[in-house]
Amino acid sequence: MRLSGVEIRWVEMPLKSPFRTSFGTQTTRQLLLLRAVSDEAEGWGECVAMADPVYSSEYLEGCADVLRRFLVPSLGGEVDGVAVAGRLAKWRGHRMAKGALEMAVLDAELRARGVSFGRELGATRDRVPCGVSVGIMDSVPELLDAVGGYLDEGYVRIKLKIEPGWDVEPVRAVRERFGDDVLLQVDANTAYTLGDARHLARLDPFDLLLIEQPLDEEEVLAHAELAKVVRTPICLDESITSAKSAADAIRLGACQIVNIKPGRVGGYLEARRIHDVCAAGGIAVWCGGMLETGIGRAANVALAALPGCTLPGDTSASDRYYAMDVTEPFVLDDGHLPVPAGPGLGVTPLPDALDAVTVKTEWIAL
Ligand SMILES: CSCC[C@@H](NC(=O)CCC(=O)O)C(=O)O
Ligand SMILES: [Mg+2]
Q1: Going residue by residue through the chain (366 aa), what tens digit of pLDDT does each one get?
Q2: Could you state, in order of their start, the residue ranges of all structural domains in the chain?
Q3: pTM of the predicted protein model
């Protein structure tokens, strides 16, 4: 198919409540939505970069710039989803921007072909169990109220954000209040060092599913050292940027589990390759989240339905973060979300809802 151009849409979604991690507090999710217009169909992509380079080196305006000047102009002529990565390979890095563009082209192609994202990626289920990510709170009682609420809503797994000073005590409190059967894990977003190994081992008695990205994203060997001290399985997030980096991390013993985030790794096709590399290595994977709108959420739920995704992902319902989504909301049903079955993403933005959160649009003609 041939693209006539790509629309970049700056979107601002107010969060229902502040979301605090070890690298800061978010009250509004600023993100880019891409609309790829081709001679066969239109497709949507979501760029998960944050407004500031605090989760990774990418940031919203940087993504808009690299899309405008380098990535979109590289997609002239005949193109389809699988061709995008090769066409963009000459531009180094910028995985979130590339992933969003590939997603939009892939969505257009799949809509034209009448194939769902789930079928294209190899989904084996039509609904997926959902976990929820719980931010750092001002007090343990506030945390327990939040966790109780999510368990009442039916979430099958609780993930607690941790940082030095907020780790053992909140985990112990959740275990004491909700018991040993709740699936529980923690995410440090790189907040610790190898010198904290003995302290992190104090989490071992709480039977956590995993400790996510305790150390800096570049500390792959240090994670392997940490795994010799901490009994709880190590899961990597920020460190895993491609199938190659996943294979290396597994071989080095740096992780027993991998959080796959399509935006972080350059798109859903690379995400599937990571899934396949991990499955070959006996490594469990799950689909992470970047507070996506229903656009990215639809694709994430499709990815979460792959056979190697044996742990609940951060694929929460739309109302975890947003009072109103830009698509029909994803609603939790018995702790699960349905995998969209329609062509492409299977969802499209609701024009009025999308306009209400759009702050700017830019058309990039090809
Ligand atoms: C703004 S924090 C985004 C990164 C974080 N994501 C989550 O905690 C899940 C967010 C979600 O539910 O989409 C992670 O490191 O895993
Ligand atoms: Mg994480």
Answers
A1: 999 999 999 999 999 999 999 999 999 999 999 999 999 999 999 999 999 999 999 999 999 999 999 999 999 999 999 999 999 999 999 999 999 999 999 999 999 999 999 999 999 999 999 999 999 999 999 999 999 999 999 999 999 999 999 999 999 999 999 999 999 999 999 999 999 999 999 999 999 999 999 999 999 999 999 999 999 999 999 999 999 999 999 999 999 999 999 999 999 999 999 999 999 999 999 999 999 999 999 999 999 999 999 999 999 999 999 999 999 999 999 999 999 999 999 999 999 999 999 999 999 999
A2: 3-114+348-365, 118-338
A3: 0.98
Q: What is the CATH number of domain 3-114+348-365?
A: 3.30.390.10
Contact between 132 and 150 (Cβ < 8 Å): yes
Query: What CATH class is the domain 118-338?
Result: alpha beta
- Taking phi over 0 as left and psi of -120 to 50 as alpha, with beta for the rest, 80 belongs to beta
Please indicate whether residue 161 is annotated as part of the active site: yes
Alpha-carbon 82 to chain mean position: 21
Of 22, 52, 133, 192, the one to substitute when testing ligand 1's pocket (max ligand atoms within 8 A of C-beta) is: 133
Q: Establish whether residue 22 lines the binding site of ligand 1, counting it when its CB lies within 6 angstroms of any ligand atom.
A: no
What are the residues whose beta carbons fall under 8 Å from the beta carbon of 36, sequence distance 6 or more?
A: 3, 6, 42, 43, 44, 45, 101, 104, 105, 107, 108
Look up residue 1 and give its amino acid.
M
Residue whose Cα lies nearest atom 9 of ligand 1: it is 289
Q: Minimal CA–CA distance to 101: which of 39, 54, 48?
A: 48
> What letter represents residue 19's amino acid?
F
> How would you list the strands of the sheet with 24-38, edge to edge?
42-47, 24-38, 3-21, 358-365
Residue nearest atom 1 in ligand 1 by C-alpha distance: 290
* Residue having the nearest C-alpha atom to atom 3 of ligand 1: 290
Is residue 261 part of the annotated active site? The answer reads yes
**Annotated catalytic residue: which of 161, 228, 244, 360?**
161
